[in-house]
Amino acid sequence: MDIRMKWFYRLGFLLLLFIVLYIFMKLKPMWAPIVRVGMKVLIPFLIAAFISYLLHPVVELLHRKGMKRGLSIVIIYLLFFGGFGFAVYKGIPIMTEQIRELSENAPAAAEQYRNWTDWIGRKTEDWPFGIHERLDATILKIEGKLESLMDTIMNYSMKLFDFVLLIALIPFIAFYIVKDYDALKKMTRYLTPRKWRNQGIAFLKDIDVSLGGYIRGQIIVCAAIGGISSLLFWIVGMKYPLLLGALIGITNIIPYFGPLFGAIPAALIAASISVKMIIIVVVIVLVLQFLEGNILSPLIIGKSLHMHPIFIMFALLVGGEVAGVIGLIIAVPILAVVKVSVIHARIHFKNNPSID
């Protein structure tokens, strides 16, 4: 085929693809409700599959050590869901109480910040180039965000009750997935076309090696950092230690920028107490950052991704721009999948030079 004709063919294919996508988006009012219902039904299965993916290596490890497979599944299953259930049973009332206490103390904290902003306003009123006005606008924006924070938390908490039945199904679905993990793998293999089977298995294995260790390790590190920060905040007498520790642990899943995001609420609350508490909180966050970066992450996660930090930072910036906080969380896993996909695509085209 002539090179010019190949380019015309490719451009025509792209044009046709854009037309199909345009029509598809125009028909969104028709298919969007179906997608919402489908996602609502699929969510417990996706969560259960993710939990099973996390637990399966531990089950296999116990099985290789000589324990019967059924017994190892029951032990790991009970430990995971029992521990998670106990944490929820003990932690949710404390978390709810701390959120309620924080909302009750919000007016006093707002008054404290208002005194500070008035002082900053007096000190900056003679600054040139509209800096004073911009600082006032920034402070007002921060106050608005703080006021809407509690409403957002409570709204999301109430929405969880709409999914009680679906959430209750997750342990049962996860149990059967873990129990029949090998059978499901065989079924997936037989459903895959024979010509793609070996390459697909190799592709999934590489993704598991690159991504599985990172996800499991990151969850362990985040849980450890959240627990240690809650304990340290409680020891130094910081308000809302469990709530702030949970925020630091959750945001720690975002590489590089996560600890900073998690430290902001703690620093703001510490600022309403005393300057000494601000210093203590900053020291705790710096110690946790050192612990996570130099001990926990290298020990637990290692270098499972094998990617330069520049690529990770670029993925985080793109993810944050496209999808906000969710984008920051899923940016690195998506980058790992893209990396493995590119490597396998190169191998595929190298082994099949006739493919245009």
Automatic annotation (TrEMBL):
The keyword Cell cycle appears for this protein: no
UniProt key word Transmembrane: yes
Membrane topology annotation: Multi-pass membrane protein
Locations listed in the record: Membrane
Pfam families: AI-2E_transport (PF01594)
Gene Ontology cellular component terms for the protein in this record: membrane
InterPro entries: AI-2E-like
A Gene Ontology biological process term: transmembrane transport
Keyword annotations: Membrane, Transmembrane, Transmembrane helix
Transmembrane domains' residue ranges: 7-25, 37-59, 71-92, 160-178, 214-236, 268-291, 311-338
Family membership noted in the UniProt record: Belongs to the autoinducer-2 exporter (AI-2E) (TC 2.A.86) family.
Protein name per UniProt: Membrane protein
